[in-house]
């Protein structure tokens, strides 16, 4: 699907489908002159006969059977009810989601969306364009790689936004559309990696995807570290997770250089456990199939790196993915074993199902060799975070208030929200071990917090944030599948950092 924006009226040379917004007083919200008799009479008739429901976000699609008599080549009109011309950010997101869900069912290959009369509180036209592009791409997503009978893909090939274009801002608005396309495609790439079954999406598969991502890029390069390399680095914590499987672990390093050569990079670190049985501390079987999603933190790093490269942001970003499989086996790590991390700290492995923090702690240590401006790790880390926050917000932990505030704001502006959680020293005491420097769990209480406190022990003074996405990374039930979060939050954050 290709996107563009136009300063011309929505009725000028419009083909396919025209999408219009109607407020609660039945007025068309548009800066364009609806002078075409076919459009004007048809819309008025639909509104007068109450075919468009009064409820906000109601939609109505109507074919133009007499379109040949029209002065323009329209085939259908699509109406969506908005509460008023100026919307809150939340109302705009809800309306855009409803629009996107219905738009992808459209039978025309060209769609024109007239947003020339819409306004969103505290948002620019560029923000609106970017968000709508992202949501339409997300709604068009299908994962049918392993189905023999596939659902028809959306027929929409071209989507043109009609806006009131301020003088001299055309280039910036076009850039906003291109950014939305990059973010939407990056989000869908993340969803695809997350949705692939674990017998296909192995650590080696993620390594291949990383190599492919950098293959034709002048700004992105990839390096793959094998288990022998990790042994030389002293990554005893990471390697303890992969000890029971035949699948070799991979430490994936993606390096995007869009900024000044000597500019400190931002490092993104993704938990890439491609399947988590729990190891010797075996998980219950009921929903164990969903543990293919335990690499969604890594998948989000892939999606962000793709988006950043596509946008060519003037910033340096390093994506690190600790890819491993956690299986029981003759060589598997056992509860009570003590391992030595790359930092030199020793860890008593009290529960082999608390493996994510083990792969991340060594990767956090490795990340510091780049002397980063800041580090952010993303992980489906704890069921306790799901209990605390459900699926609506990702858990956010940070050792810097300014970094936490920036991430929270990025989440708020995109709707990909996070909620800050505590990192008090009282919680760290729960990790005390009589046999090692610390244990890998802190007991039954505050499990998400103690997991974050564990990671904090390996970041030193580097500005750092941890996103626990165990509740937000995928949906269960009838609509089971990866969500692509928090790609939107992270790309918004990086765009702000890039200026």
What does it look like?
- Helix 8 runs parallel beside helix 14 (487-498) and helix 9 (356-367) packs parallel to helix 13.
- Helices cover 34% and strands 22% of the residues.
- It is built from 14 helices and 22 strands.
- It has helices spanning 37-48, 89-103, 125-139, 170-195, 203-214, 227-233, 236-241, 296-311, 356-367, 383-389, 401-414, 425-428, 447-456, 487-498, and strands at residues 2-6, 16-22, 28-29, 59-63, 74-81, 86-87, 110-114, 119-120, 158-162, 220-225, 250-257, 266-276, 316-326, 337-340, 346-349, 374-379, 394-398, 418-420, 438-439, 464-468, 474-475, 481-482.
- By secondary structure, the chain is of the alpha/beta class.
- The radius of gyration is 25 Å and the shape is elongated.
- The protein has two domains: 2-165, Leucine Aminopeptidase, subunit E, domain 1, CATH 3.40.220.10; 188-498, Zn peptidases (Aminopeptidase, 3-Layer(aba) Sandwich), CATH 3.40.630.10.
- The mean pLDDT is 94.
Number of domains: 2
CATH homologous superfamily annotation of the largest domain: Zn peptidases
- Tally the helices: what do you get? 14
Average per-residue pLDDT, rounded, comes to 94
Task: Jot down its keywords.
499 residues, Leucine Aminopeptidase, subunit E, domain 1, Aminopeptidase, 2 domains, alpha/beta, 8-stranded mixed beta sheet, 14 helices
SSE arrangement:
Elements: E1 2-6, E2 16-22, E3 28-29, H1 37-48, E4 59-63, E5 74-81, E6 86-87, H2 89-103, E7 110-114, E8 119-120, H3 125-139, E9 158-162, H4 170-195, H5 203-214, E10 220-225, H6 227-233, H7 236-241, E11 250-257, E12 266-276, H8 296-311, E13 316-326, E14 337-340, E15 346-349, H9 356-367, E16 374-379, H10 383-389, E17 394-398, H11 401-414, E18 418-420, H12 425-428, E19 438-439, H13 447-456, E20 464-468, E21 474-475, E22 481-482, H14 487-498
Parallel strand pairs: 1-9, 2-5, 2-7, 6-8, 7-9, 12-13, 12-16, 15-19, 16-20, 17-18
Antiparallel strand pairs: 2-3, 4-5, 10-11, 11-13, 14-15, 17-20, 21-22
Helix pairs in contact: 2-3, 3-4, 4-8, 8-14, 9-13, 11-14
């Amino acid at each position: 699907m290709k996107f563009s924006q136009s300063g011309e009226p929505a009725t000028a040379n419009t083909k396919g489908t025209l999408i219009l917004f109607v407020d609660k007083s039945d007025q068309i919200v548009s800066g364009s002159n609806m002078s075409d008799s076919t459009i004007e009479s048809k819309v008025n008739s639909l509104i007068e006969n109450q075919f468009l429901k009064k409820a906000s976000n109601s939609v109505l699609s109507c074919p133009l059977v007499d379109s040949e008599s029209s002065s323009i080549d329209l085939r259908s009109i699509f109406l969506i009810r908005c509460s008023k011309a100026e919307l809150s950010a939340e109302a705009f997101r809800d309306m855009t989601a409803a629009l996107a869900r219905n738009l992808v069912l459209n039978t025309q290959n060209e769609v024109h969306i007239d947003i020339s009369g819409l306004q969103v509180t505290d948002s620019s036209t560029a923000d609106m364009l970017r968000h709508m592009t992202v949501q339409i791409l997300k709604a068009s997503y299908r994962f049918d790689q392993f189905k023999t009978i596939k659902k028809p893909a959306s027929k929409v090939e071209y989507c043109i936004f009609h806006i009131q274009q301020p003088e001299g801002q055309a280039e910036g608005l076009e850039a906003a559309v291109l950014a939305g396309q990059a973010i939407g495609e990056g989000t869908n790439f993340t969803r695809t990696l997350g949705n692939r079954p674990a017998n296909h999406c192995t650590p080696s598969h993620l390594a291949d995807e990383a190599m492919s991502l950098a293959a034709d890029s002048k700004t992105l390069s990839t390096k793959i570290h094998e288990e022998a390399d990790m042994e030389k680095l002293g990554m005893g914590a990471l390697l303890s997770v992969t000890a029971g499987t035949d699948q070799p672990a991979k430490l994936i390093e993606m390096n995007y250089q869009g900024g000044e050569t000597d500019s400190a990079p931002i490092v993104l670190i993704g938990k890439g456990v491609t399947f988590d049985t729990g190891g010797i501390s075996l998980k219950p079987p009921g929903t164990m199939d969903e543990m293919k999603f335990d690499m969604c933190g890594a998948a989000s790093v892939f999606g962000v790196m793709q988006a950043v490269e596509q946008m060519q942001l003037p910033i340096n970003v390093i994506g690190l993915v600790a890819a491993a499989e956690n299986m029981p086996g003759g060589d598997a790590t056992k509860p009570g074993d003590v391992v030595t991390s790359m930092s030199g700290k020793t860890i008593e492995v009290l529960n082999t199902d608390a493996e994510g923090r083990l792969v991340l702690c060594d990767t956090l240590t490795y990340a510091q060799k780049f002397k980063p401006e800041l580090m952010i790790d993303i992980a489906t880390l704890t069921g306790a975070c799901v209990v605390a926050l459900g699926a609506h917000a990702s858990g956010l932990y940070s050792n810097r208030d300014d970094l936490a505030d920036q991430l929270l704001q990025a989440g708020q502006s995109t709707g990909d929200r996070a909620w800050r959680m505590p990192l008090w020293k009282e919680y760290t005491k729960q990790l005390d071990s009589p046999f090692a420097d610390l244990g890998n769990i802190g007991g039954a209480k505050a499990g998400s917090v103690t997991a974050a406190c564990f990671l904090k022990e390996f970041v030193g003074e580097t500005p750092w944030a941890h996103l626990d996405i165990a509740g937000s990374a995928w949906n269960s039930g009838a609509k089971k599948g990866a969500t692509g979060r928090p790609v939107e939050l992270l790309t918004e954050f990086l765009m702000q950092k890039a200026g």
